[in-house]
Design a protein that fits this description.
The chain has 5 helices and 2 strands, in the order ββααααα. The protein is mostly helical. The longest helix has 18 residues, at 37-54. It starts with 5 loop residues before the first strand and ends with a helix.
């Protein structure tokens, strides 16, 4: 089974390794009083973005000491950047936004190991 196993169907969402106690309980498809379908869909969006737009290039960007600035626009259009701000202020909060969405985004971004990506995203959250 792949490290980045992702199973998605309407009723069964699983992320990460399916080894007992290796990942949060809800990653393995168990119910959670905190994470709902919106959170699961958002995690899938973040994971897809990281897998396609960041992970293949992160080592190259670290070596170069820079990254393409249009990455911010891509993340914004994907609904990942700006998620903590209200729509009337240009934010991209998911429906029924709560703090778990930001934790999901940080968790997914951290998977690439590029600290500068998390740092830049944190700066953008403060701006």
């Amino acid at each position: 089974q792949s490290e980045h196993h992702l199973t998605m169907s309407n009723t069964d969402w699983k992320f990460g390794e399916q080894i007992p106690f290796c990942e949060p309980y809800w990653y393995q498809g168990y119910p959670s009083p905190y994470y709902n379908e919106g959170h699961k869909q958002f995690r899938a969006t973040c994971r897809k973005f990281v897998e396609e737009e960041i992970k293949p290039y992160v080592d190259e960007w670290i070596e170069a000491g820079t990254y393409p600035l249009d990455l911010h626009e891509k993340a914004y259009k994907a609904g990942i950047q700006g998620l903590i701000y209200p729509k009337e202020h240009g934010g991209t909060p998911p429906e029924n936004y709560d703090a778990f969405y930001e934790m999901i985004m940080v968790d997914e971004m951290a998977r690439v190991g590029g600290g500068s990506i998390l740092g830049q995203n944190g700066i953008n959250s403060m701006a």
